[in-house]
Design brief:
Strand content: under 5%
CATH superfamily of the largest domain: Winged helix-like DNA-binding domain superfamily/Winged helix DNA-binding domain
CATH class of the largest domain: Mainly Alpha
Radius of gyration: 24 Å
Helix content: over 70%
CATH topology of the largest domain: Arc Repressor Mutant, subunit A
Distance between the termini: 43 Å
Order of helices and strands: HHHHHHH
CATH architecture of the largest domain: Orthogonal Bundle
Structural class: mainly alpha
């Protein structure tokens, strides 16, 4: 949860709320202002904790994109590099692998994730839609646009 919950963000959010509600403060001294700010801080913390429990931000659902990329790169490398292949052909395949990785990096984050999950990890559209919290047609669109961009980049 520490990666999602930064104390400085909470302080900033609290001060922002205090600034927005400054005209509603009815106190007369610094002690009352401090109590008022503490109330805003408590509400801000409650909102943050509530938000962390929501499905979209649930830490237990998170998966490292880097881990998926590493695993996918290994599978792609195994697919492209065959020990029976002569060295010049292997070099060409390595260049293709590098070009493919660079092209994947140039895609939007959502397109890249959809392509990696579908084509490299073998996920079905429904599984990707659930994981990305999108509709199946939205995932299909990401795959379509991502593949078009990859084809253009790899020509």
């Amino acid at each position: 949860m520490q990666a999602k919950f930064d104390p400085s963000d909470v302080v900033q959010q609290t001060l922002l709320q205090a600034h927005r509600a400054a005209d509603t403060f009815e106190g007369d001294n610094d002690a009352q202002r401090a109590a008022w700010l503490r109330q805003i801080l408590v509400r801000t913390l409650q909102h943050e904790l509530r938000d962390l429990g929501r499905d979209k931000r649930n830490v237990r659902r998170e998966k490292s994109l880097q881990t998926n990329l590493d695993a996918s790169s290994i599978r792609m490398e195994n697919w492209l590099v065959d020990n029976q292949t002569p060295p010049p052909d292997r070099a060409e395949k390595n260049e293709l692998l590098l070009q493919m990785a660079e092209s994947l990096e140039s895609l939007s984050e959502d397109q890249r994730e959809a392509i990696i999950l579908h084509y490299l990890n073998g996920y079905k559209l429904a599984e990707i839609a659930t994981q990305m919290n999108r509709s199946i047609s939205s995932v299909a669109g990401l795959l379509h646009r991502g593949l078009a961009a990859l084809r253009t980049a790899l020509r």
